[in-house]
Structure formats: structure tokens, C-alpha cells
Write a structure and sequence with these properties.
Elements: H1 2-6, E1 14-20, E2 24-31, E3 47-51, E4 54-58, E5 64-74
Antiparallel strand pairs: 1-2, 2-5, 3-4, 4-5
């Protein structure tokens, strides 16, 4: 019984981001650790890469964060204007 009392459930808090690239829009998330959250500017330029199915974000302080991809969507193409 004492061993069961020692095991506590751990809860993680997640922070999500929507990143719009040239071709894809990504919805990503990372766990929030005390004082270890990405420092990014809303609507600002962002550096990211995908390598072997993993998503990495470089924040404004040049710190790298590995994130989980929740959604990857192809951006809709620009509407084509037809000449009459």
C-alpha cells in the first residue's frame, strides 16, 4: 500500500503554436517547463525545420525546442483571377 501512495500522477501543461510556412500550416505543441518556454513574437519571423518526422523551433533567444506536430495542413492556393 505504501508503494501505491508514493506513485503520484504527473500532469503536464502544454503550449500550442500555429506556424504558417510557405506551403504548410503547422499546429504544434510543447510541454511547458518552469522558465523554459519558447520566446517567440506573434506574427514575427520564425525559424523551424522538420527532420525525420520531428519538428524543431528556434526561438528569438536562439534556443531550440522540439515540438509535437498536432496538425499539418496544406495551405490553400491563391485564388486565380481570370481575365474577361
Amino acid at each position: 500500500m505504501a508503494a501505491a501512495a508514493a506513485a503520484r500522477p504527473t500532469h503536464r501543461i502544454w503550449q500550442g503554436f500555429t506556424i504558417q510556412g510557405a506551403v504548410y500550416t503547422f499546429v504544434v505543441a510543447c510541454p511547458v517547463w518552469l522558465r523554459h518556454t519558447p520566446n517567440v513574437t506573434v506574427h514575427g519571423p520564425i525559424k523551424y525545420t522538420m527532420e525525420k518526422g520531428k519538428f524543431f523551433l528556434l526561438d528569438d533567444d536562439q534556443k531550440e525546442f522540439e515540438m509535437f506536430v498536432l496538425e499539418k495542413a496544406l495551405k490553400p492556393s491563391s485564388p486565380v483571377k481570370l481575365n474577361p
